[in-house]
Amino acid sequence: MKKDIFIFIVILIVVTGLAAGAATFYNKYFKPNEVFVSCYDTADTVLVIEGDVISENNPPVVRDGQILLPFDTIKKYIDPYIWWDEALQKVTVTTSDKVIKMETDKLDAYINNEPIELKFPATQIDGVVYLPIEFLASFYKINVRYSSSSNVVIIDRQDVIHRIGYPVSTGAVVRKGRNVRYPIIKKFEGMNLNSEDSKIYIFEEYDKWYKVRTAEGYIGYIRKEDIVIKSYEIGIMPEKIRERPKLPEGKISLVWDQMYSPTKAYLERKREEGIDVMSPTWFQVANRDGELINRADPQYVEWAHRNGYQVWALVANDFSNIDDTSEILNNGLKREYVIKQILAFAALYELDGINIDFENIYKSDKDAFTQFVRELTPLLREQGLVVSVDVTVPGGSDTWSLCYDRKALAETVDYVCLMTYDQTWAGSRVAGSTAQIGWVEENVKKTLKEVPAEKLLLGIPLYTRLWEETADENGKITAKTGKALSINAAELLIRENNAVPVWDSESGQYVVTFEKDNKTYKMWLENEYSVNLKSSLVHKYNLAGTATWSHNFANDSVWAVYDRNLKKTSHYEEWKSNFASLAETGKVELSAAQ
């Protein structure tokens, strides 16, 4: 009997212990946490963008009913291209069709140079620049509101579709984490479950939970079983791609036209079918004040339009004065002065587009150059002009390559002209090609990582460098080159020296070597055969077209190739079937031996 009682007591103790242990385990790991806590442990105004809490050193400020955001916060999370000019105390915002300028502590602002009065100015608070974000909301396509009950500024993007849910019962809660053990940050007891106060924005989805934002701007988590999705919300439909001025059919063929001195020689040209756009070299920055040299010829525009060409006039900096370019790019007033001149000349001469050709820029001025292009482009578009910009090939370690933010420029302009030439530049001490086909193709592929194919114009050179090689007493060969030769000048030189061009498959060019006066001369010919190969890349990579330097180096045979490859060939396979082997098998009339 005593033994039975003992066993019973032992069992009772074990069961009680297990029950207590189970209760402890349940309370620790499974019992819902009923503690209600504040979502944000700060007295500062909190900024929430979509489903994220933005934590920065300088919080938003709400003053006189206006929501102010720090400049650095806007730059980091909303507009990476917003520009602050410390010297002028001026903020510049650029969109695809607007340039907005605001000076601190002034109610006067400018939109595309038209004055507008602000309700609240940009200002500095404790040395930090703050901007009235509600004024900028429509330009950024965002919705901005302030919840006074939670002291939260909420920003939503208008072109994002939001899933909207509501709690299924008053017992639903929003927690700080994806587990019932996390404390509660919002309850719905006593609330109308279909009211705006119960509205929940759903952002991320997990196995049993949603990441959500409440009406007050609290970021937390709710169980899927406690919420029902009732609608989808979008501020605006995604903006359609802006309709550009009517462009030529097929692939674009832009040709730069060197016009550094007055001439009417163009009037003697016949229409060349392989050209769509002429880009005369008319405008150039003259000095550090930003004054432009103007070589424009109204009769040229009339002649071009009569022959069916568009005119995208080139605007260049002074390649030889890197410091003056830096001064202009980093000075808001001087950038503005250059832009006003470009706009005036574009209107005066009835241009169809502008081609921006700034070269030899400090790599430290990369962002300043992008800002210049972003300030210019909306104003040109407002006048109905096409905007293009010239860039060098990527990947180099020199200033010529590192001064371009190709991705940002491509996002801004209509076309990017890739200058795929000067592979072996004029100052080289080793002779070589201006643009080997493999080198060109490799740089196209690199550039396509930053520039969309439909915006990329492939640069094609028509000039040939004549290289002179000499050997010293040790037999070391050194090369130097003189001026660049046109196609006709190179052919004349071949005939005069009884030279024989030899096809080089590596470069995709005919190579010429001849001896004269105890010196060796070499040329990698740019002509219709090299153009045939290079222009095929437009179809191979579905590029927008070509940009050719330059008209004065060409002959009639070249334009026939452009017309055939860009206008009469539909795709790369068609070109490969009909024209790929043309250079090696076709008749080459370059040698005096023929």
Task: Describe it.
It is a single chain. The relative contact order is 0.08. This protein folds into three domains: 46-156, Copper Amine Oxidase, Chain A, domain 1 (2-Layer Sandwich), CATH 3.30.457.10; 159-233, Roll (SH3 type barrels), CATH 2.30.30; 252-461 and 527-585, Alpha-Beta Barrel (TIM Barrel), CATH 3.20.20. The protein has 15 helices and 35 strands. Helix 6 packs parallel to helix 7. The strands form seven sheets. The chain has an eight-stranded parallel barrel with strand order 21-22-25-26-27-28-29-35, surrounded by four helices. A five-stranded antiparallel beta sheet has the order 5-6-7-8-9, covered by helices on one side. The protein is 27% helix and 30% strand. By secondary structure, the protein is α/β, with parallel strands linked by helices.
Can you give keywords for this protein?
3 domains, elongated, Copper Amine Oxidase, Chain A, domain 1, 15 helices, 30% strand, TIM Barrel, alpha/beta, eight-stranded parallel beta barrel, disordered C terminus, 594 residues, SH3 type barrels
CATH class category label of the largest domain: Alpha Beta
The helix/strand class is: alpha/beta
The domain count comes to 3
Number of helices: 15
What's the gyration radius in Å? 34 Å
> In which range does the helix fraction lie?
25-40%
GO molecular function, one term: chitin binding
Organism: Thermoclostridium stercorarium subsp. leptospartum DSM 9219
InterPro entries: Chitinase_II/V-like_cat, Chitinase_insertion_sf, Cu_amine_oxidase-like_N, GH, Glyco_hydro18_cat, Mao_N_sf
GO biological process, one term: carbohydrate metabolic process
